[in-house]
Amino acid sequence: MRDILAEIVEKKKDTVAAAKKALPLHEVKRRAEENTGNFAMSHRFRQSRWNLIAECKLQSPSKGNFGHHHSVAELAKIYEQAGAAMLSVHTDEHFLGRNEDVTMVKELVDIPVLRKEFIIDEYQIYEARMLGADAVLLIARILTAQQLKDYLYLAWSLGMDALVEVHDEDDMAKALATPAQFIGINNRNLKYFRTTIQNTLDLLPLADRKRNLISESGIHTVEEARQLHEAGLDGILVGEGLSTAADVYGQTESFARM
């Protein structure tokens, strides 16, 4: 069976190498450091006990193109109007993402934007700030313990927050060994991309409740969102469950207002 994550990470190495040739690290650093942020994600989460991170998602590696009629820009505007606390914007081609989408969405909305990317190199963190992202995703599974700490501190130095994503007990231990404020429990099997919210519920007892805990992926119904809310999560990150809904606005509003 395909290991989708391994395939994506392997291709990402080539993508980052090409990006470095097109725009050298020193220039990306210069642009990023001229555009430092103000920890918008942290400010937003302090304002509410429940937060929806709505993802502008057009396709997935396992299911292909969702075939809906909304663009990233349209989804971003709908999500904000319906009460999302934050947006997640893909920049990986496996999800039809583009770097330009982060900058474009930032110009359209007044809520924080997370760059959803498979980060394997510091270059991508400087690049995220250059694009205008307020936060980055750090996937514990694809980073060493040292990289995870280094990239977290780097994001902070640029005024960005970081969502550290975990999937199992080993990932959780790696995340808790850092001072990460935001930990996302991914309900998707990172090899085969199958999902169940039970993964969040199983890992929750191992988490530090002083951190902001977010359940990611595989959330399709209001009942599932409510179950996670009642379990003590601080928020959810939802992509497919929103972008493919018959009523995107109504589904977003329902998830945002637990």
Q: How does this structure look, described?
A:
- By secondary structure, the chain is of the alpha/beta class.
- The chain has one domain: TIM Barrel (Alpha-Beta Barrel).
- 45% of the residues lie in helices and 17% in strands.
- The protein contains 12 helices and 10 strands.
- The chain has helices at residues 4-22, 25-33, 40-47, 72-81, 99-108, 122-131, 145-157, 169-176, 198-203, 222-230, 240-243, 248-256; strands at 51-56, 59-60, 64-65, 86-90, 113-116, 135-139, 161-166, 182-186, 212-216, 235-238.
- The strands form 2 sheets. It has an 8-stranded parallel beta barrel with strand order 1-4-5-6-7-8-9-10, surrounded by 8 helices.
- Helix 4 (72-81) packs across helix 12 (248-256).
- The N and C termini lie far apart (38 Å).
- The relative contact order is 0.16.
- The model has no long low-confidence stretch (mean pLDDT 93).
Summarize this structure briefly:
Its EC number is 4.1.1.48. The protein is α/β, with parallel strands linked by helices. The protein has twelve helices and ten strands.
What is the topology?
Elements: H1 4-22, H2 25-33, H3 40-47, E1 51-56, E2 59-60, E3 64-65, H4 72-81, E4 86-90, H5 99-108, E5 113-116, H6 122-131, E6 135-139, H7 145-157, E7 161-166, H8 169-176, E8 182-186, H9 198-203, E9 212-216, H10 222-230, E10 235-238, H11 240-243, H12 248-256
Parallel strand pairs: 1-4, 1-10, 4-5, 5-6, 6-7, 7-8, 8-9, 9-10
Antiparallel strand pairs: 2-3
Domain Indole-3-glycerol phosphate synthase: 5-252
EC number: 4.1.1.48
GO molecular function, one term: phosphoribosylanthranilate isomerase activity
